[in-house]
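Honest question from a wet-lab person: if I give you the sequences of every part of a complex, can you actually get the arrangement of the whole thing, not just the pieces? Trying it with mine:
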Amino acid sequence: MISPALANEGVGTELKCYHCGQRCDETRWLEEKPFCCYGCQTVFEILQTNDLCAYYDLDSLPGTSLKDVEVNSFQYLDDPKIRQKVLTFDSDNFARVTFNIPAIHCISCIWLLENLQRIEKSILRAEVNFARKTVTIDFTPSAISLSKVAGILGSLGYAPQINLDADDVPKPGIDRSLISKLSIAGFCFGNVMLFSFPEYLGIDHADQNLMRFFSWLNFALALPVLFYSASAYFKSAANSFKQGQINIDVPIAAGLLALFLRSSYDIITATGPGYLDSFTGLVFFLLIGRWFQGKTYESLAFDRDFKSYFPLATQKLIADEWKPVVIYALAEGDRMRIRNMEIIPADCTLLDDLAFIDYSFVTGESKPVKAKAGDAVYAGGRLVGRPAEFRVDEKTSQSQLTGLWNNEAFRKVTVSKYQKIIDQAARIFTWSVLGIAIITAAYWHVTNPSQMWLVLTSVLMVACPCALALAAPFTYGSMLRVFGRNQFYLKHADIIEKLASINAVVFDKTGTVTYGKRPDVAFSGLLSSEDFSDVKVLTSASTHPLSILITKAIAGVFSENLSEFREVPGKGIQGLVNGKFLQVGSSEFVGCDAMPDLNASYVFVAINGELRGYFSIRVSVRAYIKNMVDRLGTKCVALLSGDNASDKANMKMLFNPAAELVFNQTPQDKLNFIRKLQQKGRRVLMVGDGLNDSGALKQSDVGIAVTDDTGIFTPACDGILQGDKMYVLDKFLDLARYSTVILKTAFVISFLYNAVALTFAVTGHLTPLVAAILMPLSSISVVGFSTLAVNYTAHKTL
Amino acid sequence: MAIIVILIAISLIIAVGFLIAFLWSFKSGQYDDTYSPSVRMLFDTKPKEQQAKAKPKPVMSKRSASAKD
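Yes, you can. This is the full assembly:
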């Protein structure tokens, strides 16, 4: 019997923190409002003294929990060198800084951050950019230091994220030049259409001079389109010639050039109105396609490396004084001091007697490792407990962990041998158009040589694969948006095509298949809610990992009615709570010999010597993973874990027998595993979450990082998947395959249009009006088809 | 019909004016964040606050404006 009251639902009164909305374990009361921790309460107090409590009215439970937040010192920001890097403007009485704050998520956040001047008078102005999750703060540097500004943000639960990269790579944002090109092309297209109306309506020859005036106006409007808006296509075509590979831009550039030259010839010689409406329209549609495909998720970062995980600075001993220094200034032999929850930035040796290092960041193993004086400690570990001193052995860039980034996987240029579908289509297309053009030219040369050039240019004009070029951006762009709506964020649209070709999926264990930090704690037996809180009193006195988990799982009021506490190492704990004698520990300890099964850790509870039940603690696997893995079938080839093999039995039930389960893997091992699979000809999708998967994510054909909070760091990857959407991963793969089918269908449609237009051109009947109707029609039908088809398929599948 | 030439010239100039206005507004980053301005305009300052803030605020904006130059 499993008590439903336990584990995630909590026991006893259910209280939600007034600040962050999290469950309150050790409730603190202030002004009749419950708070889950000291941090949340402090934020409330700050806001209250500054009359900023409107924060709680704008959005419900807007705060971020401060329970597990490391207390950061921003002192290093006052170092002149760092300060100069971080500030965007600095003078004696005015400075401006832009901080990246991942915690920004709601209206209340914007409101509070933009009212910072009410908390600190020396802050002049603050402005939030919600899309980028940044806040720009103007302040008076003579009255307040930069570290203090960051400190204020931190104290409110909006700790700025400062890393080594942030200062030299400003986010590119939207491609501004593309929008300029697009708007100019659109403007010229609209006006050229307007001036072509007399031609469409057939009122030409009424006033020859007026018609010539319109033609020259059109010509003038087409120039910026040719030289500015369409420039990228000509450059790309020239590049592809240099590399000897024909891509889609070659026929496009040829078509555009043919259109423009033929129109110029017509206008200059006054033989016709030209096709400039088609020309400008074409460029406009093509650029819309580029813009549509270019959707990016600004607040997500896909290219983080180890530097983002490391602190910017650490405490170094300089002339008997602890001073903050930037970590890349650390040299061999330096002494540094690391505080609780800080990450160790370089391989080093422990100088203090004892320290606990949590390597979960690097290996996925969550139990802290004990280090004694003189032990080697590796970069990437997190110090747990008292501050400790270390001697640096290697510079940050040469540490064990960062050495992974020197692997060739990280250096390889991303130009892969992978042939995009669109380029394959472009090649077929280009050669067939060239063939048709030559045959047509030959035929007209024989029958009517004076018309040969006109017909030849017509063929090249209508052969311009506008619809073809739009099919891919709109198919993949729509799919990218569908994925985004389902919390699967891809770096760019081309990844979808790679996803479609995946035939091997490799999972990481901790944090990916399982929840990283939250094991399942279930109770079987009979305990009243009062008994539960008594158990909690007992377990909270122990520092054993299982005790800590049980303490966390039981919600309730904390009291200290404990006496005669005794801990028997390796066995259990016992004590008197509220007059009851409680024993919590192994079956042997409480005096029973039951052993339910081996897949979990068990903790037995006895009250007054009578066995009352047991807690079973197992790694909690994400919901519905088994179904997803089953649907993947033989595609799911392996599970790689940095952890020890204690969960093997558990994982065996989850994965099919053919899947390899490999444990004790270093980051380098994981990378090698992926490479071996690729050498066997598999296209590998790696699904991971931590720094320890970075190498594998990079080496794989597509690397997806799983995260439960998109605000926190994810390693460099091609896509970010929200943890609770893991169970539809296989469906995302299916959708990627379907989009390839949709794309190919769209190709067929656009080829049909080209065939119709070509019959006009080959027979010499391509008038400007026919061209002006056919081109937009083909583009719009292809765009409409691919967008609708993608959304319909996604609706059916998901 | 000569009048139509003048009209077209004027209309084109106005249209180009708007195009330039758009490009300028875009390049100056006005479309970078489309969410926060929409909520920012709805934030109220409480009456009591307004009085307290009435004095320092103009000073602040002047300071920041002059410093920007």
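Two things worth pointing out. The interface with chain A takes residues 1, 4-5, 8, 12, 15-16, 19, 22-23, 26-27, 31-36, 39-40, 43-44, 46, 49, 53, 56, 60-61, 63-64, 67-68 of chain B (CB under 8 Å). Helices of chain B lie at 2-27, 36-40, 47-54, 56-68.
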